[in-house]
Amino acid sequence: MKKDIILKAENISKQYRLGQVGTGTLSHDVNRWWHKIRGKQNPYLKIGETNDRSTKGNSDYVWALQDINFEVERGEVLGIIGKNGAGKSTLLKILSKVTAPTTGSIKSRGRIASLLEVGTGFNGEMTGRENIFLNGAILGMTKKEISSKLDEIIEFSGCERYIDTPVKRYSSGMTVRLAFAVAAFLEPEILVIDEVLAVGDAEFQKKAIGKMQDISREGSRTVLFVSHNMAAVKSLCTRGIVLEHGNIVFAGETEDAIEEYLNFDNDVSSKKKYNKSDAPSSEIIRLLETEVISESFENKSDYFISESVGIRIKFEILIATDDLVLGLNLYNNEEVHILSSHQKDQNLNYDVGIYQTIVWFPNNFLSEGIHFCGVAAMSYKGIFTVHFHDVNKFCFNIIDEISIDTARGMKYKGKLPGIVRPILNWDDIVCL
Amino acid sequence: MNDNNTPNDWLFEITPKNKFFSLNLKEVWQYRDLLLLFVKRDVITVYKQTVLGPLWYLIQPLFTSVTFTIIFNNVAGIDTGTVPPFLFNLAGITVWNYFTACLTGTSDTFKANAAIFGKVYFPRIITPLSVVISNLVKFGIQFLIFIGFYIFYYFQGANLGLNGLILFFPILIIIMGLLGLGLGMLISAMVTKYRDFSHLIGFGIQLLMYLSAVMYPMSLIKDKLPGYGWLVEYNPLAYIIETARYMLLDVGEVSFLGLSYTLTVTIAVFFIGLLVFNKTEKSFIDTV
Known about the structure:
The structure holds two protein chains of two kinds. Chain A is α/β, with parallel strands linked by helices. Chain A has a six-stranded mixed beta sheet with strand order 6-7-8-4-9-10, sandwiched between helices. In chain A, strands 13, 15, 16, 18, 19 and 20 form a six-stranded mixed beta sheet that branches. In chain A, strand 15 and strand 16 form a beta hairpin. In chain A, helix 4 crosses helix 6 and helix 5 crosses helix 6. The termini of chain A are far apart. By secondary structure, chain B is mainly α. Chain B contains 13 helices and one strand; from the N terminus they run E-H-H-H-H-H-H-H-H-H-H-H-H-H. Chains A and B meet through strand 1, helix 1, helix 3, strand 5 and helix 4 of A and strand 1, helix 2 and helix 6 of B.
């Protein structure tokens, strides 16, 4: 059967100039123009490096995207995942025609509408109703289309009472609800969404996710979805592509893509082996291996919220010592430092040799999402010395589940915020 | 599966560059509702939460005309013939105001709308077009006040005459709008990269006014400054203002050579502006 391709990207690349644009570009512009009138290629297209923000480059030009090729079939929900700066947003900007690619082309058989940010073009002086029309028109709807859906939009937003009040009097939550409501009733063939779900209160989140699921389940709508929320990607997408430093490193099943995303990078993965040359070390200790393991001592990167997570640390003692303590820091994917832990008050005598220890995070303790760990070693009997600290973090992913064994329970399906999610005891209710 | 699924039935294609010249009228037509809503927004939000509201549209030209009358006619003694100096100035200023409003309004299109342009696509030309159209509303209101004074002076017994060419007045205004739009688009494209132009535009417009025969008849500059008369003669705006006054007040002269020159310049500026604007809209978000 022939595939029904609705969108096709061919060799998309995007180059950006680093540093201050505007000053010093005049000479480049003149040079570029001079090459152009002589029929030569743009001299600045040749230089440029892959976009790795953490390493220092020699060139002022970087490729935010390089030779991106993919096809999307009609009715598919494609998840686009990758670390910050992998080029996801640039790709979406190109898809939604906000900026043009440096090379390559995108061909489409359908209207593309993008939800890069809700509430684009809201005018505070105008009423909610007027803004629905304005915002809808900006997103590409005609007045007729909006009029026919006006009642539904107002009802979905839950702002009925304020609909003829200027938007500047709205609370920020209400503005967002109204904006999302307009966007949710867009009906293009291809919808581009960039993490707009993280808005509003729990009730509205549930409504929004439900709406997104309806849209994708209908099957007629093609959706490109960019998110860091692996749970959302998992539940919404039919296929995934993983971007890294502006290149597609994986395209395939959603589950595999997520797995790939969590493991693709040697810098951050659930297992890490060190060479003698680059291992974090001092004259006393050298780190050999860190790995995230399950209760059955197997290395993996995804854990349900009801599973315990173990961190195995393998290290080598180079000089016998009785003054060495290992520590561990845990961060979530918003870089919040959740906790730090160390071997407390133990009298340890190490001979020269190789050792290993495992530290366990209890089940039903961490919240959903990606967590980063860093290992540290220090001495504090004599002078406080840090041998190494948080070098090259590794990570694991906690997956939310709807289960009787979790803090969520069976009935509530909305968002549960917070950086940890232990099960707390709720005493029986007493009538006073 | 699909019979029409040949490799060439793409609805549209996103490429690094626009075709050399593409004014996608079909697309602009699809977004006509947005154009109207932008115009509506511009008109109703300007004077929200003001006491005088749209009266502000009238106060500015009236006070400027009074000032000009005192300075240029009473003090400097510029002769406006049989026409009352106030009405002479009001005519010039009303027409001139439309041009400046179009030019300043469109010249910061990209900079002022960077936030919205960076999030969502619609034909960018909609924004400057809406500025030109919403200023037409403002111009209409200001023109009404001119008519009011015209009738007032008429009954005061001033020697006023309409010219038959008044029928072409709307065309003159359209030419002016296009010139402002073209120039504005050109400048807006350049402002995205070199902010110098936004500094230039402020006082540039003021200087231009003195070269555009707003407060004096064109013949005057030829008499008094024959060496510099060409500065005004090469200014297409001067012909528009002079002709507008000729139509409305039957003073001065109308030069058909000058008008065809103006029309040529307008068309050229408009298309160059459009070209540069189209080229810029594709990736200005990276440089703005």
